[in-house]
Design goal:
heterodimer; A: alpha/beta; Rossmann fold; six-stranded mixed β-sheet; 9 strands; B: mainly alpha; ABC transporter involved in vitamin B12 uptake, BtuC; 12 helices; globular
Chain lengths: ~270, ~280
């Protein structure tokens, strides 16, 4: 029986005195690709920050059933790609340097492996367990199609290429769970499609659990296994077919985006 | 011109201290520049001035008092910034003026140590005693070894604090360690170029090497090379032409910076901006 990779129970977050997330509960099963939709300001990023330990919250969040210190130990095994990584533009790091920042020490990997094993989960490792860090980095770069760019400075890459480098950085740690916060917002369609191909590959082939927020309903409908819709409160959590059949959700999401999606499916 | 300068003990000490301090300052400086803490080093050096004056005033070995004052201020201001959300530039302004004011106050309250104080203000690498040399070497080597040991989390922390935190790096502790190391680096550098020129040694080699568009390792190697070459050339030139070593070292660094800037504008280090059009790769 699949184990829950993530349990969010009755979580509320006050961000600068504003209730950004209100008593939200949902679970993500191992191997799922959960698409989170909601308008701007719906609290998606705040919720992610709470899961990642960057924001205080009320309620309970469990990673593979663990809370407290064990949760903190597993946090480093989450691959996180934010909407935009704010780095110093002159930072003299090559793509290889950036991806290598994601490697975890053998001690951390062993600790994570022991926790995962004891909760009966399966850690779908992307790389051979005996791989050296350098081999993992090369492999992660290959997955995102940036192997020829490894010696380029990160700041020389386009926005979409940078995001792919950050995905490689998240992959190289052999994540138990990937959290992607609108990772391709503002990049062109071609790069978006390449990104979606990477997402599909790591979810289907490497069986990595993914929680992904996006405004692209077409991509969500193609890739996600389940959908959550939120706007401070959680309006929906379930199968994607059920979500797209529910026209009332138009109220919580951009009407034009939804109509565009329905139009595409009616044709 | 003869090359017997190495037969003098003071010259040997000056060159050895200069090279080790240059390496230490270069590595530390790269992190300070990338974290946009360049002026933090400058502000700390002014606090060190207060510490030096305190040492002379209390008749204690001034490098000790400067170290204590400088490290305590660095940690205190970091704590203050965190708990009161004072902006970085305001915190630096407070540090800068408080350190200088303390120094000026102590100088005015006593008489007779102005000349010694000047050697700290403008550097006096050729006048360093054996005690100074050993202490500076110990401090510099300690900073270099620590920076090498924590390089991986420190690079991640400098690149993106938030991502580093998610990665399990204890960023608060690392930040305190980082500013404390910056403070002792300032102490080690004081003798070489003086309090007033420390920021030049922190900033110049690093902005020059960053301009060359290389990766992290190469940038740090280039920065160290610039620092060491400028220091050796500066000390040697100042000896033969009877110039102030601190000013000579810094002016040589400025010359290397300007030269690199001109070379960059001439297209020698041109960096290509990649577009998706020339990205012929496909996702596997």
């Amino acid at each position: 029986m699949p184990v829950n990779a993530l349990d969010v129970e009755n979580v509320s977050v006050n961000h600068n005195g504003v209730l950004a997330v209100n008593k939200i509960s949902f679970s993500v099963q191992e191997g799922d690709l959960l698409g989170i939709v909601g308008p701007n300001g719906a609290g998606k990023t705040t919720l992610f920050r709470a899961i990642l330990g960057l924001q205080s919250y009320q309620g309970r969040i469990k990673l593979f059933g663990y809370e407290g210190n064990q949760y903190t130990s597993l946090l480093s095994m989450i691959g996180y790609v934010p909407q935009k990584v704010n780095f110093e533009p002159n930072f003299p790091a090559t793509v290889y340097d950036v991806v290598s920042m994601g490697t975890l020490s053998r001690k951390k990997l062993a600790k994570g492996a022991a926790l995962i094993q004891s909760c009966g989960c399966c850690w779908n490792r992307i790389f051979q367990t005996s791989s050296k860090d350098s081999e993992k980095i090369e492999e992660a770069l290959k997955i995102v199609g940036l192997e020829s760019f490894k010696d380029r400075r990160i700041s020389e890459l386009s926005g979409g290429e940078q995001q792919r480098a950050f995905i490689a950085k998240a992959l190289v740690k052999e994540p138990l769970l990937m959290i992607l916060d609108e990772p391709v917002t503002g990049v062109d369609m071609d790069v978006q499609n390449k990104f979606y191909a990477v997402l599909k590959k790591i979810n289907k082939e490497n069986k990595i659990t993914i929680v992904w927020s996006s405004h692209d309903l077409n991509a969500i409908s193609d890739l996600a296994t389940r959908i959550a819709c939120m706007n401070r409160d959680l309006f929906f959590h379930g199968e994607k077919e059920e979500f797209f059949a529910n026209k009332d959700l138009l109220k919580t999401y951009s009407e034009s985006a939804m109509q565009l999606h329905m139009h595409k499916h009616d044709m | 011109m003869n090359f017997d300068i190495l037969s003098y003990g003071f010259m040997q000490r000056a060159l050895l201290t200069g090279i080790v301090v240059a390496i230490c300052c270069s590595i530390m400086g790269l992190f300070l520049v990338l974290k946009r803490y360049s002026l933090f080093g400058d502000a700390l050096s002014h606090t060190a001035f207060g510490g030096i004056a305190l040492g002379f005033f209390l008749n204690i070995y001034p490098i000790w008092t400067a170290t204590v004052v400088c490290v305590a201020t660095a940690l205190g201001i970091t704590k203050l910034r965190k708990s009161t959300k004072i902006s970085g530039d305001a915190a630096i302004a407070v540090l800068f003026s408080a350190g200088l004011a303390m120094g000026v106050l102590l100088v005015s309250a006593s008489h007779g140590f102005t000349i010694d104080l000047f050697s700290f203000l403008f550097g006096s690498i050729l006048l360093t005693s054996m005690q100074d040399t050993l202490l500076i070497l110990a401090i510099s080597c300690g900073v270099i070894v620590t920076l090498i040991a924590i390089r991986k989390p420190l690079i991640h922390f400098t690149f993106d604090e938030e991502q580093a935190k998610v990665h399990g790096i204890p960023i608060e502790k690392l930040n305190y360690l980082f500013v404390a190391l910056a403070a002792v680096t300032v102490i080690a550098t004081m003798r070489l170029v003086g309090i007033l020129l420390i920021s030049a040694l922190i900033v110049l080699p690093n902005i020059t090497s960053i301009m060359m568009g290389k990766g992290f390792k190469k940038t740090i190697i280039i920065s160290i090379s610039i620092s060491v070459i400028a220091t050796i050339a500066g000390i040697t030139t100042s000896y033969y032409f009877n110039l102030a070593p601190s000013g000579t070292i810094v002016m040589l660094m400025v010359a290397i910076f300007v030269g690199t800037l001109i070379a960059k504008h001439a297209g020698l280090f041109s960096t290509k901006t990649l577009t998706d059009e020339n990205n012929l790769l496909t996702v596997h």
